[in-house]
């Protein structure tokens, strides 16, 4: 990748950042909503954890990382909208007419979306943890080791859906179903120990499971960076797979249908 390619990607990222700064409401709402939901779910999670093997739990051990994962995957919609917006504004053809290649167009959007996902995750874990009395028995850097590939996985899931979906309606339905499915199977809505019997063998097949496993290792088991390398590596594998799907199916010449 030459200097010209890097400059084009940086220019696209700066434009996306300016657009996000002009209308930050979707990101703000998806950051504040989990903080609100935690207040309602913490008593339920407290009872579930104490009924298991964490007698001194206050519920935040499940509620904070769980809601962080749930609402992070809801960011998939925002990632997709950023790409469909270009088609709705009829600016996509102008981007294609420029010197930027397809992978540069994708990379420019990925950078800003990844920064937004990391910011949302950091606020939910940090502020949510402080408000709910979360006691992290392990190391905070270990949470970051899990959080970074998780955020990348979410962003690439959004890009993969952009590549696969023809219309914004398809994207919305697919993203919402994906977020709900991953939240349930991955143990974000309930502790992994109380997942239904039919869901347990399926859980390791979704990235949210590995994210919750990594977060639980740190929060409940006192794990450090070394202890979460496996979940982080699996999340990197999911992100790589989604990147391959994006590169294989993304075609800059394919029209996208928007509500407008």
From TrEMBL:
Localization in the cell: Cell membrane; Membrane
Sorted UniProt keywords: Antibiotic resistance, Cell membrane, Membrane, Transmembrane, Transmembrane helix, Transport
Topology in membrane: Multi-pass membrane protein
Matches recorded under InterPro entries: ABC2_TM (IPR013525), ABC2_TM_bact-type (IPR047817), ABC_2_transport (IPR000412), Nod_factor_ABC_transporter (IPR051784)
GO cellular component, one term: ATP-binding cassette (ABC) transporter complex
GO molecular function list: ABC-type transporter activity
Pfam families, per the entry: ABC2_membrane
Regions crossing the membrane: 27-45, 65-84, 105-128, 140-164, 171-194, 228-250
ABC transmembrane type-2 domain residues: 25-253
GO BP, sorted A to Z: response to antibiotic
Homology family: Belongs to the ABC-2 integral membrane protein family.
Family matches, as PANTHER family: ABC-TYPE MULTIDRUG TRANSPORT SYSTEM, PERMEASE COMPONENT (PTHR43229:SF6), NODULATION PROTEIN J (PTHR43229)
Protein name: Transport permease protein
Taxonomic source organism: Streptomyces clavuligerus
Organism lineage string: Bacteria, Bacillati, Actinomycetota, Actinomycetes, Kitasatosporales
